[in-house]
Amino acid sequence: MEKILIVDDNQAVLNALSLLLEIHGYQPVLASGPAEAVKAVMYQRIALVIQDMNFTADTTSGEEGKALFYQLREINPNLPIILITAWTELEAAVSLVKDGAADYLAKPWDDAKLLTSIANLLQLGSALEENQRFRQIQSQQQAELNKNNLCGLVYGSHAMQRLVDMALQLAKSDVSVLITGPNGAGKDRIAGIIQANSPLKDKPFIKVNAGALPKELIEAELFGAEAGAYTGNNARRVGRFEAADGGTLFLDEIGNLPLSGQIKLLRVLQTGEFERLGSTATQKVKVRVISATNADLQQDIQAGRFREDLYYRLNVVELSLPPLGQRKDDILPLIQHFLPGREWSLSAERALLAYSWPGNVRELENACKRVSVLFPEGILEAEHFALQDRGSQPAPQTSAEPGPEEIQQAMDKHQGVVAKVARELGMSRQALYRRLEKYGLI
Fold first, then answer.
1. For residue 428, which phi and psi values (nearest 5 degrees)?
2. DSSP string, 295-335
Protein backbone atom coordinates (compact mmCIF):
# COMPACT_ATOMS: atom_id res chain seq x y z
CA MET A 1 0.00 0.00 0.00
CA GLU A 2 1.58 3.27 -1.16
CA LYS A 3 2.11 5.97 1.43
CA ILE A 4 0.91 9.43 0.40
CA LEU A 5 2.02 12.42 2.45
CA ILE A 6 -0.55 15.22 2.93
CA VAL A 7 0.89 18.55 4.08
CA ASP A 8 -1.61 21.23 5.17
CA ASP A 9 -2.09 23.40 8.24
CA ASN A 10 -5.88 23.03 7.98
CA GLN A 11 -7.05 20.00 9.96
CA ALA A 12 -10.29 19.83 7.96
CA VAL A 13 -8.28 19.48 4.74
CA LEU A 14 -6.11 16.80 6.31
CA ASN A 15 -9.17 14.85 7.44
CA ALA A 16 -10.95 15.13 4.09
CA LEU A 17 -7.95 14.04 2.02
CA SER A 18 -7.05 11.30 4.48
CA LEU A 19 -10.54 9.78 4.25
CA LEU A 20 -10.52 10.02 0.44
CA LEU A 21 -7.17 8.23 0.19
CA GLU A 22 -8.08 5.50 2.67
CA ILE A 23 -11.30 4.74 0.77
CA HIS A 24 -9.28 4.23 -2.41
CA GLY A 25 -6.61 1.98 -0.89
CA TYR A 26 -3.80 4.41 -0.09
CA GLN A 27 -2.10 4.94 3.27
CA PRO A 28 -2.18 8.63 4.23
CA VAL A 29 0.64 10.21 6.24
CA LEU A 30 -0.32 13.58 7.74
CA ALA A 31 1.86 16.64 8.35
CA SER A 32 0.63 20.05 9.46
CA GLY A 33 3.76 21.93 8.37
CA PRO A 34 7.08 21.78 6.51
CA ALA A 35 9.17 20.42 9.41
CA GLU A 36 6.92 17.37 9.85
CA ALA A 37 6.80 16.86 6.08
CA VAL A 38 10.58 16.87 5.72
CA LYS A 39 10.94 14.39 8.57
CA ALA A 40 8.33 12.08 7.00
CA VAL A 41 10.09 12.02 3.62
CA MET A 42 13.48 11.47 5.25
CA TYR A 43 12.41 8.51 7.39
CA GLN A 44 9.55 6.86 5.49
CA ARG A 45 9.07 5.49 1.99
CA ILE A 46 6.70 8.14 0.67
CA ALA A 47 5.35 7.45 -2.83
CA LEU A 48 3.74 10.85 -3.43
CA VAL A 49 3.16 14.20 -1.69
CA ILE A 50 0.07 16.41 -1.71
CA GLN A 51 1.04 19.79 -0.28
CA ASP A 52 -0.53 23.16 0.36
CA MET A 53 1.27 26.34 -0.68
CA ASN A 54 0.93 28.23 2.62
CA PHE A 55 1.21 27.11 6.23
CA THR A 56 0.98 30.36 8.21
CA ALA A 57 -2.27 32.22 8.86
CA ASP A 58 -2.95 35.22 6.61
CA THR A 59 -0.15 34.20 4.21
CA THR A 60 -0.99 33.87 0.51
CA SER A 61 2.30 34.36 -1.32
CA GLY A 62 3.04 30.65 -1.75
CA GLU A 63 6.68 31.18 -0.71
CA GLU A 64 6.38 28.62 2.11
CA GLY A 65 5.14 26.03 -0.38
CA LYS A 66 7.98 26.79 -2.75
CA ALA A 67 10.54 26.40 0.03
CA LEU A 68 9.04 23.05 1.09
CA PHE A 69 8.94 21.84 -2.50
CA TYR A 70 12.66 22.45 -2.97
CA GLN A 71 13.46 20.82 0.38
CA LEU A 72 11.56 17.67 -0.54
CA ARG A 73 13.12 17.54 -3.99
CA GLU A 74 16.58 17.80 -2.46
CA ILE A 75 15.81 14.71 -0.36
CA ASN A 76 14.23 12.77 -3.24
CA PRO A 77 14.56 14.32 -6.73
CA ASN A 78 12.07 11.84 -8.23
CA LEU A 79 9.32 12.32 -5.63
CA PRO A 80 5.98 13.23 -7.31
CA ILE A 81 4.43 16.32 -5.70
CA ILE A 82 0.88 17.58 -6.23
CA LEU A 83 0.32 21.21 -5.23
CA ILE A 84 -3.05 22.26 -3.85
CA THR A 85 -3.36 25.96 -4.62
CA ALA A 86 -5.67 28.90 -4.23
CA TRP A 87 -6.12 31.13 -7.27
CA THR A 88 -3.84 33.74 -5.72
CA GLU A 89 -1.01 31.17 -5.68
CA LEU A 90 -1.54 29.88 -9.23
CA GLU A 91 1.46 31.65 -10.76
CA ALA A 92 3.79 30.23 -8.10
CA ALA A 93 2.36 26.75 -8.62
CA VAL A 94 2.87 26.93 -12.37
CA SER A 95 6.52 27.95 -11.89
CA LEU A 96 7.04 24.93 -9.60
CA VAL A 97 5.51 22.61 -12.17
CA LYS A 98 8.15 23.86 -14.62
CA ASP A 99 10.77 23.05 -11.99
CA GLY A 100 9.56 19.48 -11.66
CA ALA A 101 6.39 19.42 -9.59
CA ALA A 102 4.18 16.69 -10.97
CA ASP A 103 0.80 18.46 -10.94
CA TYR A 104 -1.29 21.18 -9.33
CA LEU A 105 -4.99 21.45 -8.47
CA ALA A 106 -6.94 24.54 -7.48
CA LYS A 107 -8.98 24.71 -4.31
CA PRO A 108 -11.62 23.45 -3.89
CA TRP A 109 -10.24 20.36 -5.63
CA ASP A 110 -12.19 17.80 -7.61
CA ASP A 111 -11.88 14.36 -5.98
CA ALA A 112 -12.03 12.49 -9.29
CA LYS A 113 -9.32 14.64 -10.89
CA LEU A 114 -7.12 14.31 -7.80
CA LEU A 115 -7.45 10.51 -7.75
CA THR A 116 -6.70 10.30 -11.47
CA SER A 117 -3.60 12.44 -11.03
CA ILE A 118 -2.44 10.30 -8.09
CA ALA A 119 -2.92 7.05 -10.03
CA ASN A 120 -1.07 8.34 -13.09
CA LEU A 121 1.83 9.73 -11.07
CA LEU A 122 2.25 6.54 -9.05
CA GLN A 123 2.31 4.50 -12.25
CA LEU A 124 4.90 6.80 -13.74
CA GLY A 125 6.93 6.64 -10.53
CA SER A 126 6.94 2.84 -10.70
CA ALA A 127 8.24 3.00 -14.27
CA LEU A 128 10.92 5.48 -13.27
CA GLU A 129 12.05 3.22 -10.40
CA GLU A 130 12.22 0.23 -12.75
CA ASN A 131 14.22 2.28 -15.23
CA GLN A 132 16.53 3.45 -12.47
CA ARG A 133 17.10 -0.15 -11.34
CA PHE A 134 17.90 -1.11 -14.93
CA ARG A 135 20.40 1.72 -15.21
CA GLN A 136 21.94 0.73 -11.88
CA ILE A 137 22.50 -2.79 -13.21
CA GLN A 138 24.16 -1.32 -16.31
CA SER A 139 26.27 0.93 -14.11
CA GLN A 140 27.29 -2.01 -11.92
CA GLN A 141 28.27 -4.00 -14.98
CA GLN A 142 30.36 -1.11 -16.26
CA ALA A 143 31.97 -0.79 -12.85
CA GLU A 144 32.77 -4.51 -12.94
CA LEU A 145 34.32 -4.07 -16.38
CA ASN A 146 36.47 -1.25 -15.09
CA LYS A 147 37.46 -3.06 -11.91
CA ASN A 148 37.71 -6.64 -13.16
CA ASN A 149 38.68 -8.41 -16.36
CA LEU A 150 35.47 -9.96 -17.73
CA CYS A 151 37.28 -11.33 -20.80
CA GLY A 152 34.86 -9.62 -23.17
CA LEU A 153 31.77 -11.29 -21.70
CA VAL A 154 28.59 -9.55 -22.88
CA TYR A 155 25.37 -9.97 -20.91
CA GLY A 156 22.34 -8.14 -19.56
CA SER A 157 20.52 -10.67 -17.40
CA HIS A 158 20.33 -11.00 -13.63
CA ALA A 159 21.24 -14.69 -13.98
CA MET A 160 24.55 -13.88 -15.65
CA GLN A 161 25.27 -11.07 -13.20
CA ARG A 162 24.93 -13.54 -10.30
CA LEU A 163 27.16 -16.02 -12.11
CA VAL A 164 29.83 -13.39 -12.82
CA ASP A 165 29.72 -12.22 -9.19
CA MET A 166 30.29 -15.79 -8.01
CA ALA A 167 33.09 -16.37 -10.55
CA LEU A 168 34.86 -13.22 -9.35
CA GLN A 169 34.51 -14.38 -5.76
CA LEU A 170 35.91 -17.82 -6.60
CA ALA A 171 38.80 -16.22 -8.47
CA LYS A 172 40.28 -15.13 -5.14
CA SER A 173 40.58 -18.73 -3.92
CA ASP A 174 42.34 -21.81 -5.31
CA VAL A 175 39.45 -24.30 -5.04
CA SER A 176 38.52 -26.55 -7.94
CA VAL A 177 35.54 -25.28 -9.92
CA LEU A 178 33.18 -27.28 -12.14
CA ILE A 179 31.30 -25.22 -14.76
CA THR A 180 28.20 -26.92 -16.13
CA GLY A 181 25.98 -25.88 -19.00
CA PRO A 182 25.15 -26.61 -22.65
CA ASN A 183 27.59 -26.37 -25.52
CA GLY A 184 28.08 -22.87 -26.88
CA ALA A 185 26.80 -21.12 -23.75
CA GLY A 186 30.17 -19.64 -22.77
CA LYS A 187 31.67 -22.01 -20.18
CA ASP A 188 35.19 -21.29 -21.42
CA ARG A 189 34.57 -17.54 -20.97
CA ILE A 190 33.60 -18.08 -17.32
CA ALA A 191 36.75 -20.14 -16.80
CA GLY A 192 38.76 -17.31 -18.33
CA ILE A 193 37.19 -14.78 -15.94
CA ILE A 194 38.18 -16.91 -12.95
CA GLN A 195 41.76 -17.15 -14.20
CA ALA A 196 42.05 -13.49 -15.28
CA ASN A 197 41.00 -12.18 -11.87
CA SER A 198 42.90 -14.65 -9.71
CA PRO A 199 46.33 -14.36 -8.08
CA LEU A 200 47.45 -16.74 -10.87
CA LYS A 201 46.49 -14.34 -13.68
CA ASP A 202 50.12 -13.94 -14.77
CA LYS A 203 50.79 -17.68 -14.57
CA PRO A 204 50.14 -20.30 -17.27
CA PHE A 205 46.54 -20.92 -18.29
CA ILE A 206 46.43 -24.20 -20.22
CA LYS A 207 43.24 -25.35 -21.92
CA VAL A 208 42.50 -28.98 -22.77
CA ASN A 209 39.47 -30.46 -24.51
CA ALA A 210 39.43 -33.65 -22.51
CA GLY A 211 36.85 -35.32 -24.72
CA ALA A 212 38.96 -34.80 -27.83
CA LEU A 213 42.05 -36.58 -26.48
CA PRO A 214 42.74 -39.89 -28.28
CA LYS A 215 42.30 -42.73 -25.81
CA GLU A 216 45.74 -44.16 -26.48
CA LEU A 217 47.42 -40.74 -26.05
CA ILE A 218 45.58 -39.42 -22.97
CA GLU A 219 48.49 -40.17 -20.65
CA ALA A 220 51.04 -38.54 -22.98
CA GLU A 221 48.85 -35.47 -23.52
CA LEU A 222 48.16 -34.86 -19.83
CA PHE A 223 51.44 -35.98 -18.26
CA GLY A 224 54.01 -35.91 -21.06
CA ALA A 225 56.22 -38.61 -22.53
CA GLU A 226 59.90 -39.41 -22.83
CA ALA A 227 61.45 -39.73 -26.26
CA GLY A 228 60.63 -43.12 -27.78
CA ALA A 229 57.87 -43.84 -25.30
CA TYR A 230 55.52 -44.55 -28.21
CA THR A 231 55.78 -44.83 -31.97
CA GLY A 232 56.56 -41.51 -33.64
CA ASN A 233 57.61 -39.76 -30.45
CA ASN A 234 61.20 -38.74 -31.12
CA ALA A 235 61.58 -36.08 -28.44
CA ARG A 236 60.50 -35.52 -24.88
CA ARG A 237 56.91 -34.27 -24.79
CA VAL A 238 55.77 -31.86 -22.08
CA GLY A 239 52.31 -32.74 -20.76
CA ARG A 240 49.52 -30.29 -19.98
CA PHE A 241 49.91 -30.60 -16.20
CA GLU A 242 53.61 -29.84 -16.41
CA ALA A 243 52.95 -26.88 -18.73
CA ALA A 244 50.37 -25.53 -16.26
CA ASP A 245 52.62 -25.87 -13.19
CA GLY A 246 52.08 -22.85 -10.93
CA GLY A 247 49.02 -21.80 -12.89
CA THR A 248 45.63 -23.09 -14.01
CA LEU A 249 44.54 -26.05 -16.11
CA PHE A 250 41.11 -25.84 -17.78
CA LEU A 251 39.73 -29.28 -18.59
CA ASP A 252 36.85 -28.72 -20.98
CA GLU A 253 34.24 -31.44 -21.68
CA ILE A 254 35.52 -33.47 -18.76
CA GLY A 255 32.45 -35.71 -18.95
CA ASN A 256 33.77 -37.24 -22.20
CA LEU A 257 37.05 -38.40 -20.62
CA PRO A 258 37.18 -42.24 -20.68
CA LEU A 259 37.45 -44.16 -17.42
CA SER A 260 41.10 -45.01 -18.01
CA GLY A 261 41.92 -41.32 -18.22
CA GLN A 262 39.77 -40.56 -15.17
CA ILE A 263 41.83 -42.92 -13.02
CA LYS A 264 45.10 -41.24 -14.01
CA LEU A 265 43.59 -37.78 -13.54
CA LEU A 266 42.33 -38.62 -10.06
CA ARG A 267 45.82 -39.46 -8.81
CA VAL A 268 47.39 -36.17 -9.89
CA LEU A 269 44.48 -34.21 -8.40
CA GLN A 270 44.93 -36.00 -5.09
CA THR A 271 48.72 -35.83 -4.84
CA GLY A 272 49.99 -33.46 -7.51
CA GLU A 273 52.28 -36.29 -8.64
CA PHE A 274 52.63 -38.16 -11.96
CA GLU A 275 55.19 -39.86 -14.16
CA ARG A 276 55.84 -39.08 -17.77
CA LEU A 277 55.02 -41.91 -20.11
CA GLY A 278 58.14 -44.03 -20.45
CA SER A 279 59.70 -42.71 -17.20
CA THR A 280 59.81 -43.90 -13.59
CA ALA A 281 60.77 -40.48 -12.20
CA THR A 282 57.92 -38.86 -10.29
CA GLN A 283 57.08 -35.26 -11.19
CA LYS A 284 55.25 -32.95 -8.79
CA VAL A 285 53.21 -29.93 -9.79
CA LYS A 286 50.89 -27.42 -8.19
CA VAL A 287 48.00 -26.68 -10.52
CA ARG A 288 44.57 -25.17 -10.01
CA VAL A 289 41.98 -27.15 -11.98
CA ILE A 290 38.85 -25.68 -13.54
CA SER A 291 36.70 -28.15 -15.43
CA ALA A 292 33.59 -27.88 -17.57
CA THR A 293 30.99 -30.23 -18.99
CA ASN A 294 27.68 -30.27 -20.79
CA ALA A 295 26.92 -33.71 -19.37
CA ASP A 296 24.89 -34.66 -16.30
CA LEU A 297 27.75 -36.13 -14.29
CA GLN A 298 25.46 -37.36 -11.51
CA GLN A 299 23.59 -39.41 -14.09
CA ASP A 300 26.89 -40.61 -15.56
CA ILE A 301 28.01 -41.71 -12.10
CA GLN A 302 24.84 -43.77 -11.69
CA ALA A 303 25.45 -45.32 -15.11
CA GLY A 304 29.08 -46.12 -14.28
CA ARG A 305 30.50 -43.74 -16.90
CA PHE A 306 32.12 -41.31 -14.46
CA ARG A 307 33.98 -41.89 -11.21
CA GLU A 308 32.26 -40.46 -8.16
CA ASP A 309 35.53 -39.79 -6.34
CA LEU A 310 36.81 -37.79 -9.32
CA TYR A 311 33.55 -35.85 -9.46
CA TYR A 312 33.98 -34.63 -5.89
CA ARG A 313 37.61 -33.72 -6.56
CA LEU A 314 36.58 -31.55 -9.49
CA ASN A 315 33.40 -30.15 -8.00
CA VAL A 316 34.32 -28.22 -4.87
CA VAL A 317 32.12 -25.41 -6.23
CA GLU A 318 29.77 -25.72 -9.20
CA LEU A 319 28.84 -22.83 -11.50
CA SER A 320 25.76 -23.65 -13.55
CA LEU A 321 25.50 -21.64 -16.78
CA PRO A 322 21.91 -21.47 -18.09
CA PRO A 323 21.23 -21.86 -21.82
CA LEU A 324 20.73 -18.63 -23.75
CA GLY A 325 17.04 -19.41 -24.21
CA GLN A 326 16.58 -19.07 -20.44
CA ARG A 327 18.30 -15.69 -20.20
CA LYS A 328 16.43 -13.60 -22.75
CA ASP A 329 17.86 -10.35 -21.40
CA ASP A 330 21.26 -11.37 -22.82
CA ILE A 331 20.04 -11.73 -26.41
CA LEU A 332 19.80 -8.08 -27.48
CA PRO A 333 23.07 -6.97 -25.81
CA LEU A 334 24.81 -9.84 -27.62
CA ILE A 335 23.29 -8.86 -30.96
CA GLN A 336 24.36 -5.25 -30.41
CA HIS A 337 27.86 -6.57 -29.69
CA PHE A 338 28.02 -8.83 -32.75
CA LEU A 339 26.30 -6.29 -35.05
CA PRO A 340 27.51 -2.91 -33.81
CA GLY A 341 25.61 0.06 -35.17
CA ARG A 342 22.91 -2.01 -36.85
CA GLU A 343 19.19 -1.54 -36.28
CA TRP A 344 16.39 -4.10 -36.44
CA SER A 345 12.63 -3.91 -36.62
CA LEU A 346 10.29 -4.67 -33.75
CA SER A 347 9.09 -7.82 -35.51
CA ALA A 348 12.71 -8.99 -35.81
CA GLU A 349 13.29 -8.26 -32.14
CA ARG A 350 10.23 -10.28 -31.17
CA ALA A 351 11.36 -13.22 -33.29
CA LEU A 352 14.89 -13.11 -31.89
CA LEU A 353 13.59 -13.09 -28.33
CA ALA A 354 11.06 -15.86 -29.00
CA TYR A 355 13.61 -18.18 -30.63
CA SER A 356 15.01 -20.85 -28.31
CA TRP A 357 18.64 -20.61 -29.55
CA PRO A 358 19.49 -24.32 -29.10
CA GLY A 359 23.07 -23.56 -30.14
CA ASN A 360 23.26 -20.83 -27.52
CA VAL A 361 25.69 -17.89 -27.85
CA ARG A 362 27.70 -19.71 -30.52
CA GLU A 363 24.60 -20.03 -32.71
CA LEU A 364 23.68 -16.39 -32.13
CA GLU A 365 27.18 -15.24 -33.06
CA ASN A 366 27.13 -17.32 -36.25
CA ALA A 367 23.70 -15.94 -37.17
CA CYS A 368 24.98 -12.38 -36.73
CA LYS A 369 28.08 -13.10 -38.82
CA ARG A 370 25.91 -14.46 -41.60
CA VAL A 371 23.61 -11.42 -41.44
CA SER A 372 26.54 -8.99 -41.55
CA VAL A 373 27.82 -10.64 -44.74
CA LEU A 374 24.51 -11.16 -46.57
CA PHE A 375 22.71 -7.99 -45.42
CA PRO A 376 25.41 -5.39 -44.71
CA GLU A 377 23.05 -2.39 -44.84
CA GLY A 378 19.55 -1.38 -43.83
CA ILE A 379 17.20 -2.28 -41.01
CA LEU A 380 17.27 -5.98 -40.24
CA GLU A 381 14.07 -8.01 -40.40
CA ALA A 382 13.24 -11.36 -38.83
CA GLU A 383 13.68 -13.26 -42.11
CA HIS A 384 17.28 -12.04 -42.41
CA PHE A 385 18.19 -14.27 -39.47
CA ALA A 386 16.48 -17.32 -41.06
CA LEU A 387 15.30 -18.56 -37.67
CA GLN A 388 12.40 -20.62 -38.98
CA ASP A 389 14.64 -22.34 -41.49
CA ARG A 390 16.67 -23.65 -38.56
CA GLY A 391 13.80 -25.15 -36.63
CA SER A 392 12.51 -22.31 -34.50
CA GLN A 393 8.90 -21.90 -33.62
CA PRO A 394 7.70 -18.74 -35.35
CA ALA A 395 6.84 -15.99 -32.92
CA PRO A 396 3.58 -14.12 -33.29
CA GLN A 397 4.53 -11.43 -35.77
CA THR A 398 3.17 -7.93 -35.49
CA SER A 399 4.67 -5.43 -37.86
CA ALA A 400 3.01 -2.39 -36.31
CA GLU A 401 5.29 -0.39 -34.06
CA PRO A 402 3.42 0.56 -30.85
CA GLY A 403 2.95 4.31 -30.64
CA PRO A 404 3.08 6.49 -27.54
CA GLU A 405 -0.67 6.16 -26.94
CA GLU A 406 -0.54 2.36 -26.99
CA ILE A 407 2.48 2.32 -24.71
CA GLN A 408 0.88 4.76 -22.27
CA GLN A 409 -2.31 2.67 -22.19
CA ALA A 410 -0.28 -0.43 -21.38
CA MET A 411 1.63 1.49 -18.68
CA ASP A 412 -1.66 2.60 -17.13
CA LYS A 413 -3.11 -0.89 -17.34
CA HIS A 414 -0.15 -2.51 -15.57
CA GLN A 415 0.48 0.39 -13.17
CA GLY A 416 3.88 1.13 -14.67
CA VAL A 417 5.32 -2.37 -14.12
CA VAL A 418 7.76 -2.44 -17.02
CA ALA A 419 8.13 -6.23 -17.18
CA LYS A 420 4.35 -6.69 -17.64
CA VAL A 421 4.10 -3.87 -20.18
CA ALA A 422 7.00 -5.27 -22.21
CA ARG A 423 5.39 -8.72 -22.17
CA GLU A 424 2.05 -7.38 -23.43
CA LEU A 425 3.69 -5.36 -26.20
CA GLY A 426 5.91 -8.28 -27.19
CA MET A 427 9.22 -6.54 -26.66
CA SER A 428 12.16 -6.69 -24.29
CA ARG A 429 12.48 -4.38 -21.30
CA GLN A 430 15.44 -2.67 -22.95
CA ALA A 431 13.35 -1.99 -26.08
CA LEU A 432 10.53 -0.61 -23.96
CA TYR A 433 12.91 1.71 -22.10
CA ARG A 434 14.21 3.02 -25.42
CA ARG A 435 10.67 3.82 -26.57
CA LEU A 436 9.68 5.38 -23.24
CA GLU A 437 12.64 7.72 -23.58
CA LYS A 438 11.92 8.34 -27.29
CA TYR A 439 8.33 9.41 -26.59
CA GLY A 440 9.14 11.33 -23.40
CA LEU A 441 7.08 8.99 -21.20
CA ILE A 442 9.74 8.81 -18.46
1. -80, 165
2. S-HHHHHHTTSS-HHHHHHH-SEEEE---GGG-GGGHHHHH
Helix (H) or strand (E) holding 81: strand 81-85
Nearest-angstrom CA–CA distance, 253 and 208: 9
Give 55-71 pLDDT, tens digit per residue. Answer: 876 666 778 888 998 89
Where is 96: in which H helix or E strand? helix 90-98
Find the distance separating the first CA and the last CA of the chain, reported in whole Å. Answer: 23
Residues in Cβ contact with 399 at an 8 Å cutoff, skipping those fewer than 6 apart: 345, 346, 347
Convert the pLDDT of each residue in 263-322 to its tens digit: 889 999 999 999 988 889 999 999 999 999 999 999 999 999 999 999 999 999 999 999
Percent helix, strand, coil in the chain, to 5, is: 50, 15, 35
Pairing of strands 177-180, 103-106: unpaired
Are the beta carbons of 319 and 178 closer than 8 angstroms?
Answer: yes
SS3 106: strand
At residue 197, what is the residue type? N
Q: What is the side-by-side strand order in the sheet with 317-320? A: 205-209, 248-252, 288-293, 177-180, 317-320
